[in-house]
């Protein structure tokens, strides 16, 4: 135990109080004494913390049960022991129910047994105090966790809304590209096809399916790959390319965005010389 232990002994017989003081002379306990319940309440009100109270049962004006009941109301964490020569069943039940006592010890007491009971009662007190402290700490942690969860839920909701908004934008952008009468291809710096609109799929898709996610060397003709290489060298070019026996007009742009994104954008249009992209 890290805190100093104070024991309040309340009895209207001075010799009992002196006997209790002598009993704990060799201990580290601080023994406080009061000759009445009223005096005991005054001591409790002026002392920072009293862990244990030993009270007589039969005292003038305020008996032990009334005293301990007030103690229970004002200082509920104290451990309360009744030490009395008046020990019938009614008295014991009354003390337990009204004063919520920890133990009823008859007079005369056995010193060794009383010391053991006091030691056990203090262990009980500090275990209960530790439990109270841990419960409060747990409540604080739960409150903090609740706050974190609420913030996390808010962040998730904001992020979800942002992703949904971006998804709508991407869908709209793809729908616009798919509505164009031109084939549009996007190629990353490694030659991976990362964009292809509906018209591009019609023109360039192989028999087995979509060219998205394929590399240009595997998916496109030698002429188109040569056109891509030339676009990388010159930055922006236009010309005509033969595809599936038909001539298509083509334009390539080497994109270097300020964000660091880089790639090739290719635009193809089926048609004659008058419709060629310049």
Explain how this protein is built.
With 278 residues, the protein is an alpha/beta fold. It folds into two domains: 6-131, Rossmann fold; 180-275, 2-Layer Sandwich (Beta-Lactamase). Helix content is 49%, strand content 22%. It has helices spanning 14-23, 37-46, 64-74, 89-99, 111-179, 198-204, 216-219, 222-234; strands spanning 6-10, 30-34, 52-55, 79-84, 103-106, 183-187, 193-196, 236-243, 246-256, 262-270. A hairpin with a 5-residue loop joins strand 9 (246-256) and strand 10. Helix 2 runs parallel beside helix 3. The longest helix is centred in the middle third of the chain and has 69 residues, at 111-179. The two termini are 90 Å apart. Residues 273-278 have low confidence and may be disordered.
Topology:
Blueprint (H helix, E strand, L loop, with lengths): L5 E5 L3 H10 L6 E5 L2 H10 L5 E4 L8 H11 L4 E6 L4 H11 L3 E4 L4 H69 L3 E5 L5 E4 L1 H7 L11 H4 L2 H13 L1 E8 L2 E11 L5 E9 L8
Parallel strand pairs: 1-2, 1-3, 3-4, 4-5
Antiparallel strand pairs: 6-7, 6-10, 8-9, 9-10
Compact overview of the structure:
The chain is of the alpha/beta class and 278 residues long.
Count the strands? Answer: 10
How many helix segments?
8
Structural class, judged by helices and strands?
alpha/beta
What count of domains describes the coordinates? Answer: 2
Poorly predicted spans: 273-278
CATH architecture of the largest domain: 3-Layer(aba) Sandwich
Which class of the largest domain in CATH terms? Answer: Alpha Beta
Q: Please name the CATH topology of the largest domain.
A: Rossmann fold
Largest sheet: 5 strands, parallel
In whole angstroms, the N-to-C terminal distance is 90 Å
Helix-strand sequence: EHEHEHEHEHEEHHHEEE
Shape: rod-shaped
Strand order of the largest sheet: 2-1-3-4-5
């Amino acid at each position: 135990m890290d805190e100093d232990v104070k024991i309040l002994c309340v009895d209207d017989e001075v010799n009992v109080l002196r006997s209790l003081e002598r009993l704990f002379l060799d201990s580290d306990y601080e023994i406080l004494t009061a000759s009445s319940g009223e005096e005991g309440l005054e001591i409790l009100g002026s002392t920072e913390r009293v862990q244990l109270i030993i009270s007589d049962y039969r005292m003038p004006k305020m008996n032990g049960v009334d005293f301990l009941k007030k103690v229970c109301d004002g200082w509920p964490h104290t451990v309360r022991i009744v030490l009395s020569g008046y020990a019938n069943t009614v008295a014991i039940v009354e003390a337990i129910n009204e004063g919520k006592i920890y133990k009823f010890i008859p007079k005369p007491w056995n010193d060794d047994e009383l010391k053991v009971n006091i030691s056990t009662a203090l262990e009980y007190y500090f275990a209960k105090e530790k439990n109270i402290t841990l419960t409060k700490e747990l409540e604080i942690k739960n409150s903090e966790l609740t706050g974190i969860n609420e913030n996390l839920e808010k962040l998730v909701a904001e992020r979800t809304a942002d992703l949904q908004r971006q998804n709508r934008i991407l869908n709209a952008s793809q729908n616009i590209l798919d509505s164009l009468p031109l084939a549009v291809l996007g190629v990353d710096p490694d030659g991976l096809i990362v964009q292809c609109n509906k018209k591009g799929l019609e023109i360039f898709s192989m028999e087995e399916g979509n060219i998205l996610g394929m590399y240009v060397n595997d998916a496109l003709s030698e002429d188109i790959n040569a056109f891509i290489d030339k676009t990388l060298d010159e930055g922006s070019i236009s010309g005509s390319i033969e595809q599936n026996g038909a001539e298509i007009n083509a334009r390539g742009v080497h994109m270097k965005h300020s964000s660091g994104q880089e790639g090739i954008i290719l635009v193809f249009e089926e048609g004659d010389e008058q419709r060629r992209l310049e």
